[in-house]
Amino acid sequence: MLSKDKAVVVFSGGQDSTTCLFWAKKHFNEVYALSFRYGQKHEQEVELAQKIAAKAGVEFAVMDLDFINFLSPDCSLTHSDIQMDKEKPATTPPNTFVPGRNLFFLSIAAVYARNKGAMNIVTGVSQTDFSGYPDCRDSFIRSLNVSLNLSMDEQFVIHTPLMWLDKSETWALADDLGVFDLVLKETMTCYNGIPGDGCGECPACKLRRRGLETYLKLKSKSKR
Ligand code: ZN
Q: Which of 33, 48, 205, 209 is deepest in the core (most CB within 10 A)?
């Protein structure tokens, strides 16, 4: 029997999944963080994730998925010789898209959750700011949830606390959870592998900073 008090968080050590880790800690008694090594250019991502998990006091595990890199020869996130798309192309996902990534991550997370006796799986995907990644959409997550339950005859619940939040609302959630500073200084969202404020130039940094500026503006207004 899976426990409704336990949750596995798909955890990369970025802004979104770190916010989700602390969201999960608030809602469940036992939380497990699961990271993946999949040939991302910045493997220090995994070390940062481990540090944050230790701070949060949750069990941390990392899985090797080298095949993702092999399957995505055109992806700029896993191949440093490919120039990153700066803007989202009109009709296709940007070349930072890793095909199948969330499908693989969540499928593995579900098997891991089953081993841990956890009914809940938490992921930081968001449809609001979705950068043209089809596997960040609500319809995909719901569909996969059904498939995972059928595949193992279980009753997993995939939680997506950020699905309908924009980046400034994600900052607000981190603040509500008491981890604003931790998320600001210790997480890494940057595609160029620079923690905290990042490189400031890549699409992920721009999105993160715009969200932060909006949130801080709203916050200072509400204080007046
Ligand atoms: Zn960056």
A: 33
